[in-house]
């Protein structure tokens, strides 16, 4: 019997679109159910948010404690350079390379979940995907969660916990920053006319889209389960 689980799923979508909620739902399934229903093995997450947040923390320490210049962001929390967004993607590629190096037969046990959001303002998905390694792209399938900016804004406001700004499930952005960075996204231009595959650096990468405008992810209930039961087996067939 051949391998029945994805090597890599790349999860994209606007902030608060439901990415972390989908991961949370799938993680709660037993290993056997997760493999049979979703073609996902043991999870190994690579998310650029903790990397980004570390830069914020370092700048706060430099400015407030060491009385030194900020290294990564200005006082409003914007990166000094657009290429820093691409650096985060290069960091994801490096982290994946380390997995392959350090864990024998890595994908016999793990499905890697790579998670990030990109707006047109900082290069969009078209630029971000140029910085993913060929090792990732040749094994990847893309799961995009589609919501409007207004829905992203609503859920971003709702989920934000000021006492846990570093939390994967409870972090948020100020309204004006969310609009500047994610008001426009280039997913439709990036995905193009083919409803099943995106050509990225010579690799034909399969994708699916979850329409989450009606927010089926927050409750993590039956409706989300049904959507995943439909979409992930379809993505698995495309990956084959």
Low-confidence stretches: 166-170
The count of domains is 1
CATH architecture: 3-Layer(aba) Sandwich
Amino- and carboxy-terminal Cα gap: 14 Å
**Overall strand count:** 6
CATH topology type = Rossmann fold
- Please compute the radius of gyration using only Cα atoms: 18 Å
**Which descriptor suits the 3D outline?**
globular
**Widest sheet, order of strands:** 2-3-1-4-6-5
Specify the structural class.
alpha/beta
Overall pLDDT metric: 91
Write down the CATH class.
Alpha Beta
Corresponding CATH superfamily: P-loop containing nucleotide triphosphate hydrolases
Q: Quick one: biggest sheet?
A: 6 strands, mixed
**How many helical elements?**
11
**What helical percentage do the residues reach?**
40-55%
Q: Tell me the β content.
A: 15-25%
Order of helices and strands: EHHEHHHEHHEHHHEEH
Structure, explained:
- With 240 residues, this protein is α/β, with parallel strands linked by helices.
- The protein has one domain: P-loop containing nucleotide triphosphate hydrolases (Rossmann fold, 3-Layer(aba) Sandwich), CATH 3.40.50.
- It is built from eleven helices and six strands.
- It has a six-stranded mixed beta sheet with strand order 2-3-1-4-6-5, with helices on both faces.
- Helix 8 runs antiparallel to helix 9.
- The two termini are 14 Å apart.
- Residues 166-170 have low confidence and may be disordered.
């Amino acid at each position: 019997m051949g391998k029945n689980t994805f090597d890599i799923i790349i999860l994209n979508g606007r902030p608060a679109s439901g990415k972390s909620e989908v991961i949370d739902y799938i993680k709660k399934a037993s290993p056997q159910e997760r493999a049979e229903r979703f073609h996902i093995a043991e999870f190994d997450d690579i998310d650029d948010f903790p990397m980004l947040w570390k830069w914020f923390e370092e700048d706060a320490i430099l400015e407030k404690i060491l009385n030194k210049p900020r290294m990564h962001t200005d006082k409003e929390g914007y990166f000094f350079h657009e290429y820093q967004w691409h650096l985060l993607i290069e960091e994801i590629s490096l982290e994946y390379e380390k997995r392959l190096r350090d864990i024998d037969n890595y994908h016999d046990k793990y499905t890697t979940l790579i998670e990030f959001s990109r707006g047109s303002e900082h290069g969009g998905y078209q630029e971000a995907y140029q910085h993913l390694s060929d090792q990732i792209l040749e094994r990847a399938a893309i799961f995009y969660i589609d919501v409007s900016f207004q829905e992203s804004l609503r859920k971003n406001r709702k989920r934000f916990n000021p006492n846990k700004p570093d939390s994967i499930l409870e972090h948020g952005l100020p309204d004006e920053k969310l609009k500047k960075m994610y008001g426009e996204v280039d997913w439709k231009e990036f995905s193009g006319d083919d409803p099943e595959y995106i050509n990225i650096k010579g690799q034909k990468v399969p994708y699916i889209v979850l329409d989450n405008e009606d927010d089926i992810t927050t409750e993590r209930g039956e409706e989300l389960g049904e959507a995943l039961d439909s979409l992930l087996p379809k993505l698995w067939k495309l990956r084959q």
